[in-house]
Write a structure and sequence with these properties.
InterPro entries: AAA+_ATPase, AAA_lid_NorR, CheY-like_superfamily, Homeodomain-like_sf, P-loop_NTPase, Sig_transdc_resp-reg_receiver, Sigma_54_int, Sigma_54_int_dom_ATP-bd_1. This protein is of the alpha/beta class and 475 residues long. It is 48% helix and 14% strand. It folds into three domains: 125 residues, Response regulator (Rossmann fold); 165 residues, 3-Layer(aba) Sandwich (Rossmann fold); 157 residues, Helicase, Ruva Protein, domain 3, CATH 1.10.8. It is built from 20 helices and 18 strands. A hairpin with a 2-residue loop joins strand 4 and strand 5. Bound molecules: adenosine-5'-triphosphate. The site of adenosine-5'-triphosphate has 19 residues, from helix 7 and helix 15.
Amino acid sequence: MANVLIIDNDDATGSSLCRTVTDMGHDASWRKNLREGVPLAVSRPFDVVFLAIHLPDGNGLDLLPVIQATSSAPEIIIMTGADEPDAAETAIKSGAWDYVTKGAAPEEVKLPLVRAIQYRQEKLYCSRKNVTSLKRDDIVGSSRKLTACLDQVAQAAVNDIPVLITGETGTGKELFARAIHHNSGRAAGNFVVVDCAALPDTLVESLLFGHEKGAFTGAEHGRDGLILQAHGGTLFLDEVGELSVSVQRAFLRVLQEHRFRPLGGSREVESDFRLVSATNRDLDAMVQGGQFRSDLLFRLRSFTIEIPPLRDRDGDVKELVRYHMDRLCERYGLAHKGFAPEFLQSLAAYAWPGNVRELINTLDRVIVSARYEPTLFPKHLPSDIRIKAARAANGHKRQGDAPPAAFHGLPPLHDFRDETVQRAENNYLHELIAVTRGNINEACSISGLSPSRLYALMKNHGIHRRYFDPDAEGE
Ligand SMILES: Nc1ncnc2c1ncn2[C@@H]1O[C@H](COP(=O)(O)OP(=O)(O)OP(=O)(O)O)[C@@H](O)[C@H]1O
């Protein structure tokens, strides 16, 4: 929630702005002259100040530098009259964040305000970035696009504004929502998931708001709803696009006031939760089609994180395969497996319409087909995946796409050698784990390495030492 100060003597403009700001979930203070407005800006931290130019006791632009010099250094949005074409230019030259015309519709005021708040949050994040190290939870991948999303998680974690996570099915939206929670100041509170697609119409209100004993037939005990369970923590609305219109209305009120009345209750209760939502639907199109409330959408997406599909994340498939294959082997009590390079190449060539979830399901099928065999080859892949991957590779050739760099000519020997050694070492280590079934003495005796050298090599390759040392903590 941001703190916004309005300095304007015009009653209609001031009250309309106050309403818009509070409707967006922020705190609004309103003063009608510089005599009261400027001392307030000095004494209390504000994020944004809406400042009129012509005020009863002076020109707002003259005091703009004073407001900017306060310790909270708020962003200033100047309010100009429709008949002052030069005022906008003057405002920008004076270092204001933006300007709006007095009497503008609320929608026109919201965007500069959202941007100013986002800018401040990013600034705050950058200043804290050096001391903040993100807990990635189980998020695997180091592609540029995934790393950019992790940066956004870090930004979202240091403030409390609502976050909307978008992306195709199976891209990891829930995982990212959990990462925001675990890295936030609310990590000690609950992370409560509301699966909006699975809320039965008849029970939705009691599930969300809770109920008192005897509120309806069969309510033998009172019960807290999901919203109250999220008090002090994070409420995650998964598949938010599936909320029915009547529940959207009820939710909007809860988001505005953070208060609600349980079914059968006589008093309202309060819940201080942070909201994160996710969807794979086009909510703007749903607003256009009348299926989603625009005022609710506005509240949900103060900050947006768009998770890219797996096919656009260069190199992540390989990392995900190693990570999830190791977890699956552990779950089935199997020794860890090595990979033939062609196995990984086939997986990387496939488009993964179901994204990471489809990849994990595929690996599950691979385990069934490979069982105790220590190395995975393309033949272990389900045939539909092999066929689609082969078609995708052929498609590239037929369409005359530039062939991969390796086919043009040779890379520099130095790069080629390094990459080959790295790959060979990595395969060797996985084979070693598989062959020795995690017996460190046997692994040292086969490889001729000391335990410390072996552990160091594993660390270089991002392979966890617990494969040989089950008591090892996460690194
Ligand atoms: N980057 C990642 N690293 C490791 N595992 C991942 C990653 N992304 C997703 N997963 C795994 O993929 C599966 C699907 O992820 P998740 O449920 O978060 O996707 P989603 O986008 O919320 O899907 P949906 O839209 O269908 O609800 C989960 O098992 C999750 O742990």
